Amino acid sequence: MSLTINATKREDQGKGASRRLRRAEQIPAIIYGAGKAPSNITLGIHEITHLLEKEESYTSVLDLMVGKKKEAVIIKDLQRHPAKNIVTHVDFLRVNLKQALVTNIPLHFLGADENESIRLGAILNQFVTSVEVSCLPADLPTSIDVDITNLTLGDHISLTGLNIPKGVTLTALTHGDIEAHDQSVVAVQEAKKMAEVQDDAPVAPETEVAGDEANADNAEGDE
């Protein structure tokens, strides 16, 4: 089931225009990428807030309706009010449905409540909470499940042990030496050893479309 968000074209620009929009329960946004010029749009605050309550919205290809025109996009960036946590601006990146894209996908760890070692006092150490993948938009998963039900004390799951959907590639394992990049994702360890373990989770890179340098240099810089 596709996720749809409605928008209208926006002509007014600048801080004053953005403040007027927000008073009218609307927020400014922009679409860019896919070799096309950036386009300024307006979103309804209630619709975008409701959409963002769904975790899959952050990792799904969305149908953005600007009037009667539909564009395939992903959410590239969100800005929120520092005190109210209200969305104040959204960046959408156009997606070519025939071209692979690179983005981060969250990991869902399942089975902790049924894991015997954890029930007896062991600790589940999550080294990685999301992974970077490359795939066609149609193959993009909203999350990747990691079953830790049967892990015993000292066991771990590495990147090569993840159940990756068909058509999806872990970019960390495409650099030649798989063993050198096959980092641990999760492990069951003794509680007293947790203080000795350093979290080596990689910094999440920005979403990008493979082969397309999405450029928002022409976007408004004053919103």
| Count of DSSP H/I helices | 4
Q: Strand count, sense and closure of the main sheet? A: 6 strands, mixed, barrel
- How far do the termini sit from each other? 33 Å
Strand order of the largest sheet: 1-3-2-6-5-4
Q: Which topology of the largest domain does CATH recognise? A: RNA Polymerase Alpha Subunit, Chain A, domain 2
**Can you tell me the CATH architecture of the largest domain?**
Beta Complex
Instruction: Please report which band the strand proportion falls in: under 5%, 5-15%, 15-25%, 25-35%, 35-45% or over 45%.
Output: 35-45%
Structural class: mainly beta
Q: Give Rg in angstroms.
A: 21 Å
Element order: H for helix, E for strand: EHEEHEEEEHEEEEEHEE
Instruction: Give the full name of the CATH homologous superfamily of the largest domain.
Output: Ribosomal protein L25, C-terminal domain
CATH class of the largest domain: Mainly Beta
Q: Could you name the ranges where pLDDT drops below 50 across 5 or more consecutive residues? A: none
> How many independent structural domains?
2
* Overall helicity: 10-25%
How would you sum up the global shape?
Answer: elongated
Total beta strand runs: 14
Q: Summarize model confidence as the mean pLDDT.
A: 86
Protein name: Large ribosomal subunit protein bL25
Family: Belongs to the bacterial ribosomal protein bL25 family. CTC subfamily.
InterPro entries: Rbsml_bL25/Gln-tRNA_synth_N, Ribosomal_bL25/Gln-tRNA_synth, Ribosomal_bL25_b-dom, Ribosomal_bL25_C, Ribosomal_bL25_long, Ribosomal_bL25_short, Ribosomal_L25_dom, Ribosomal_uL5_bac-type
Domain Large ribosomal subunit protein bL25 beta: 102-191
